[in-house]
Amino acid sequence: MTLAHGIYMAAGIGILMAAVLPPVVRRRPFSLPMVFLVAGAAIALLPFDVPVVDPVRDGVWVEHVTEVCVIVSLMGAGLAIDRPFGWRAWAGAWRFLGLALPLTIAAMAVLGWWLMDWPPAVALLLAAALAPTDPVLAAEVRVGEPTSGEDEDDEKEVHFTLTSEAGLNDGLALPFVLAAVALATAAGDGWSGDWIGHWLLADVLLRAALGLIAGVAVGRFLRWLFFRSPHVRLSQQTEGFTALGVTFTAYGITELVHGYGFLAVFVAACTIRAAERNHGYHQVLHGFSEQIERLLTAVLLFLLGGYLVADGLSVLSPQGALLGIALIVVVRPLAGAAAQLGFPSALRERAVTALFGIRGIGSLFYLAYALREGPFGPYADELWAVTAFTILASVLLHGATATPVIRHLDQRRSRIP
Questions:
Q1: Residue 390 contacts residue 322 (beta carbons within 8 Å)
Q2: How far is CA 258 from the centre of its chain?
Q3: Cα dist. 343→92, 100, 133, 182, 362 in Å?
Q4: Where residue 229 sits, what CATH number does that domain have?
Q5: Could you give the CA distance from residue 227 to residue 205 in angstroms, rounded to a whole number?
Q6: Pairwise CA distance, residues 113 & 214, whole Å
Q7: Are residues 51 and 2 in contact, defined by beta-carbon separation less than 8 angstroms?
Q8: CA nearest 77: which of 220, 260, 272, 207?
Q9: Domain that residue 176 falls in
Q10: pLDDT tens digit string along 240-280?
Q11: Using an 8 Å Cβ cutoff, are 305 and 39 in contact?
Q12: Is residue 128 helix, strand or coil?
């Protein structure tokens, strides 16, 4: 059996599971990602010659499949958000982007340098790859499908903040990945500050600005085409696959002009959502995006489970495992708590928002991308092992606790007059 045959098998089983399992796991203390990971691991343990994906050897296709999965999920997340854009309305997202994200990267870089004895660039790469939260695996704690937005209680602060944070930080973590690549190129295993000026100007300011501008421009044009064009009004055709057209157009144009495509896709989705909020076409677009996202996620997690039991866990050191656990149970909760100091929401809601920073597919993309762009080859196996283990730990811990925790929050909220 070749690797291609194994991927077909994983795709088939994963897609069938994605179709069958949602009603089974709904409102139970485990999630679909948990099932996909465990199933992939179980099949890899069978006494057969089952081919396993090696993310170091197969890095190119891992990069592009995870890339597609993330941009599709970003489109779905942006289309689902009912809350109109505003500095005050989105205050929770700004706090997590401006404080929690850089605090997490700084803390994880220091821990990686100290625990793993890695060079600064390698420690920074792992920190940047693991820092963004993931809209792909956060189904239990993100906002649901688009609604009319007439009822303010439709969108709870916990769900909104986690969804908007995940949608935006997938784009804003890339500058720090590029910083790790620039540092490794400039200084190897040492340290140099010669790259910082160019990085701040080109990779932080310019590329982020291009991502925002392209996202708004593409979103405005497409929402006109969907809802207001006098000749071709696509919303009348009720075709969900146009969501892929929006996704690929926004991402492709932005990347061609060297902006941040992840950021542009989410911004374009939010811009489209801002038009005709009561229109049912938003649900059509979101539903199609969610289906594609679920299929890709099933395949990727299935393969990730196989990699973990075949190769990843054997490479993982105790220090690497400790690093991943520290991110989930110490670094993210503390960074999230710091970001919410003075935020006007209940203590329990702030705690849940700080705890549920789920790691996932975005981290796989960033690592595959950086390993292709920078001189990190000697550390590739360790980096993949720590990243895959962290995602495993996050999926298991957050997947087992998300449903009961959110249910408890909802019950308490319903009892408050």
A1: no
A2: 21
A3: 8, 14, 20, 36, 28
A4: 1.20.1530.20
A5: 33
A6: 37
A7: yes
A8: 272
A9: 3-415
A10: 788 888 899 999 999 999 999 999 999 999 998 887 777 77
A11: yes
A12: helix
Q: Which amino acid is at 269?
A: A
Average pLDDT, integer, range 93-102: 92
What is the C-alpha separation between 184 and 191, in angstroms, rounded?
Answer: 8
pLDDT confidence of residue 357: 83
Task: Give the SS3 label for residue 115.
Answer: helix
Residues 6+ apart with CB under 8 A from 394: 137, 328, 358, 359, 360
Q: Could you give the number of structural domains in the chain?
A: 1
Q: How far apart are CA 253 and CA 75, in angstroms?
A: 15
368 contacts 177 by C-beta, under 8 angstroms: no
Is residue 149 predicted with pLDDT exceeding 80? no
399 pLDDT more than 50:
yes
Distance CA 105, CA 115 (A): 15
> Mind listing the pLDDT tens digit for each residue in 304-346?
998 999 888 999 999 999 999 999 999 999 999 999 988 888 8
Q: Enumerate residues 6+ apart whose C-beta is below 8 A from 21.
A: 32, 35
pTM for this entry: 0.90
